[in-house]
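Sat 14:20. Reprocessing the chain from the morning session after the first attempt stalled halfway. Input below, unchanged.
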Amino acid sequence: MNIKKMISTFTCLLIVVFTLTAQKGSSCSNPIVIDGTGETKLISPNTYECAFSGGENVKQWFSFKATQSGKISLTSCGLTDEDTHVLVYPGAFCEPLLLTAESDDFCGFQSRVSFKGTQGNDYLIVWINKKSSNGFKWTLTEGDWAEGESCTVPKQANATSVNVCDHSAGTDQWFTYTAPGAGTITLSSCGNTTENTLVKVYSNCAGELITINDEHCNQQSEVIFDCSEATEYLILWDKVDANTSYNWSLSYAGIPTSFTKHKNARALVSPNPAKDQLFVDVSGLQQVRIELFSMTGQSLRSAYSDSGGIETIDVSMLNAGIYLVSIEADDFSKVIKIAKE
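Finished this time. Tokens:
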């Protein structure tokens, strides 16, 4: 090989190397690995720095392997004046990208989020500067869940005094309540706050959802469900977009919902299992909100009826599986589990 050809080949290799280096962190397939080496831009304990090239809304990707199981927290709060946005995906590969956690404008224009980490698992972290190409600092910390931040360490809910949700750490709030007898439990943030709230009730930490409500009274939530004696219920108040504290109430009555003033009302769902259409009979009810949820609590379909009757919900495009139909009216609440073929 002659000298000119060798120089040309060497120059091409240098260009490739420099191009690959410049692209580090520019895509999910080439993230900056957070492993204690220099490429992570570690500038102090747990503190990292994003460096962008180009205009606004440019993404910088990082990869992190959890060193312990528990809470992983990311934040740019108090570290920059830039408008930041952070997203987290499980795994070390681009496909599939299933969103685990996200934060935008949590503390002013900055971000803070916490999510469940499992020791040895990989996570893709994406930071975005929404308004400029300026870099900014952010932190990553691992630790244990504080009381109320996980279903494994729930707070005790009280039926005789006001309960308080604190989302200031960027986490959901979990509570536990054991029914003193068979009857009805009512959970409500209505009249207690102006924050946008979302409440879910589970039978266990495995994620079996019993009931859910998003906007019973404006942006606040209320659920009424039948309970069994000596049965524990896990109550989750989703952080939604709240970063402060708010009050909510719990009340117990030894009367099942079937004996309310709507005892002649119908709340029937058919067919079950469903294939293409779901018919919801709410005869005898007024101003009814019907909502279809996944078992993880995601709202998928909704309908509204002023004067009862039968409402139709299209489920033809949904995957086969189990879903929840929530039926809400004044002093009436019912959740029905259905199957989609």
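The CA atoms of residues 165 and 245 lie 5 Å apart.
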